[in-house]
Design brief:
Chain A: It comes from Cocleimonas flava. Chain A: Pfam families: CT_C_D. Chain A: InterPro entries: CT_C_D, Cyclophilin-like_dom_sf, PxpB. The complex is a heterodimer of chains A (230) and B (324). Chain A is of the alpha+beta class. Chain A has five helices and 13 strands. Chain A has a four-stranded antiparallel β-sheet with strand order 1-2-4-3, with helices on one face. In chain A, strands 5-13-6-7 form a four-stranded mixed β-sheet, with no helix packed on it. Chain A is elongated. With 324 residues, chain B is of the alpha+beta class. Helix content of chain B is 15%, strand content 33%. Chain B contains four helices and 18 strands. In chain B, the strands form three sheets. In chain B, strands 1, 2, 3, 4, 5, 6, 7, 8 and 9 form a nine-stranded antiparallel β-sheet that branches. Chain B has a seven-stranded mixed beta barrel with strand order 10-17-14-15-12-11-18. In chain B, helix 1 runs parallel beside helix 4. Chain B is elongated. Classes of the chains: A alpha+beta (230), B alpha+beta (324). The interface between A and B is large, with 46 and 43 residues.
């Protein structure tokens, strides 16, 4: 773990560069410590798979002063026993998903690449609880992992120009919902009728890195009743 | 009072100093690309420095005022006209009810900042009035201006205002060629020493893809990577890293070919490495670069970056002193 200065008011903490539950737990632990100790200085804190991006208020602290404080905290995490970096009180968020072929635009294609039936793909996807590893790309887009190997199909070769809002996709071991209509190359297997981002709410999006996400399959009728569209 | 949009220009949106604090949700900073020009335009009309203004890229809008107001235009060389009569940039002037503000062709720079006394009164969403078009967030209905829009303006007393203008030494104008200072970054060591040298010595040109999301540069030699072990979870291209957050001003070089400097509306993260980060003082300058403009990347230390930041701050206090 090291602190790297990237610009006048931005530093990045780099962890071991790989995607793993253990690194993710360390990232979360450090993020929580920073929230508790350095909130007065921090403008934006963005945890990701194996790094934390921090911008801070130069009117309140100078660059070196912030780096010094941050290094004191990273030492605490570094010296913590491994079993000490267990997850704290993270939320479980349940999201209803309609896994029908009308909205699961790539389900059929995936049966060919995986050799599984549509029912098996859906079953394998929703039986697991996922973890939020990172947020970004577009507002409220949460990168969730990890998808079971048999359905961890790579991104599509040609991205779609527009993926409908609410679409649930798979890209390798990652799975995510598109909160808005947007271009995208993930394999789409279903859609949620829920609104994941509301700019008039505080916070505008419920997801936080470290949260657990469970997808609950719903019927076409339930999808429509909840305001889902085709 | 309000302003009616007769023609919107090429790409005109409401911006203030931006929306920090939501980057972790994938909501970018937004706000004016040339923050110096934005602040000065507000100071000229007697607004708070961070009031909402219009940012007009490459071509000005045509705006009809329904009440008297003070206006100032800073940034790009785009001469303002009131009912056809030429006014100056970097100066305040009066516009009367029923008069139309329009613009001459762009002669220098890329983005003009149009401040109106009182400030543009669109709703504050997540702490800012700035428009983030990709996320349909903020500004006027979450989008750039269109003909027939009626922009609400805060009421303010303009009876005591006197027309002012900013001394040339306090205007921020793009140099030729653009020199973009950057701090070599976390992944600088991932390119060969030879590529580090060509990246700095080559003259790059601004590509046509130059907008609020990012500025792409062409014409320099492609970068070679040193051999590496592909990190678990990172993509297979040598320019891939384990997905992480992109700092504001990051210079990413997908596949090593064309550098892209990420600006105010950039996506918050992804899987491309960054050779470094452009210092904040020069991010303003990037917002004023036209396509095809020759530019070079000049490496600086953190110390030098902090000095440049201080200098810009001092320049702004001179503007404040001058106008008060």
């Amino acid at each position: 773990m090291k602190v790297v200065s990237v610009s006048e008011n931005t530093v990045v903490v780099l962890f071991e560069q790989k995607i793993s539950q253990q690194v993710a737990a360390q990232v979360l632990k450090l993020k929580q410590l920073i929230d508790a100790e350095l909130a007065d200085y921090v403008i934006d804190i963005v945890p990701s798979y194996a790094s934390i991006h921090l911008s801070f208020n130069l009117r309140k602290i100078n660059h070196q002063g912030f780096v010094d404080k941050l290094e004191t905290i990273t030492d605490i995490v570094l010296n913590a026993a491994e079993d000490d970096t267990h997850d704290g009180q993270q939320k479980l968020i349940e999201i209803p998903v309609y896994y029908g072929e009308e909205v699961g635009l790539d389900l059929h294609e995936m049966t060919e690449s995986t050799g599984l039936s549509i029912e098996q793909i859906i079953q394998m996807h929703h039986q697991k609880t996922y973890r939020v590893f990172a947020l970004g790309f577009s507002p409220g887009f949460a990168f969730l992992g990890s998808v079971d190997q048999p359905i961890a199909v790579p991104r599509k070769e040609t991205p779609r120009l527009s993926v409908p809002k609410g679409s649930l996709g798979i890209a390798g071991e990652q799975t995510a919902i598109y909160p808005f209509d947007s271009p995208g190359g993930w394999n789409i297997i279903g859609r949620t009728p829920m609104n994941l981002v509301d700019y008039n709410q505080h916070p505008p999006c419920e997801f936080e890195v470290g949260d657990s996400i469970k997808f609950n399959p719903i019927s076409k009728q339930a999808y429509l009743d909840l305001g889902g569209e085709f | 009072m309000s302003i009616k949009v007769i023609t919107p220009g090429l790409s005109t949106s409401v911006q203030d100093l931006g929306r920090p604090g939501y980057y972790h949700l994938g909501i970018p900073l937004s706000g004016g690309m040339d923050r110096y020009a934005l602040r000065v335009s507000n100071l000229l009309v007697g607004n708070d420095e961070g009031a909402a203004v219009l940012e007009a890229a490459f071509m000005g809008p045509e705006l009809l005022f329904n009440k008297d107001a003070i206006v100032a235009v800073t940034g790009a060389g785009m001469l303002p006209k009131v009912d056809g009569e030429a006014k100056s940039t970097w100066a305040s002037f009066v516009i009367k009810a029923g008069q139309t503000l329009s613009f001459d062709f762009l002669t220098s720079g890329a983005r003009a900042y149009i401040a109106v006394s009182g400030g543009i009164d669109v709703p504050i969403i997540l702490g800012s009035r700035s428009t983030y078009t990709l996320g349909a967030l903020g500004g006027f209905e979450g989008r750039g201006l269109a003909a027939q829009d009626e922009l609400p303006i805060n009421e303010c007393d303009i009876s005591k205002h006197t027309e002012k203008s900013i001394d040339e030494s306090l205007r921020n104008l793009p140099q030729k060629p653009g020199e973009l200072r950057f701090i070599p970054g976390i992944y600088w060591h991932r390119i060969t020493e030879k590529s580090q040298a060509t990246f700095i010595n080559d003259t790059w040109k601004v590509a046509p893809e130059a907008d609020r999301i990012g500025y792409r540069f062409k014409g320099g030699e492609a970068l070679d990577f040193v051999d590496r072990e592909q990190a678990f979870g990172a993509g297979s291209d040598p320019s891939n890293i384990v997905d992480s957050c992109y700092p504001y001003g990051s210079i990413q070089v997908p596949s090593g070919s064309e550098p892209i400097v990420l600006h105010r509306d950039a996506v918050s993260g992804g899987g491309y490495f960054m050779v470094g980060v452009v210092i904040s003082a020069d991010m303003d300058l990037i917002g004023q670069l036209q396509p095809n403009k020759p530019s070079t990347f000049v490496p600086v230390t953190m110390e030098e970056a902090l000095i440049a930041r201080r200098e810009r701050k001092e320049k702004l206090s001179k503007v404040r002193d001058f106008l008060s």
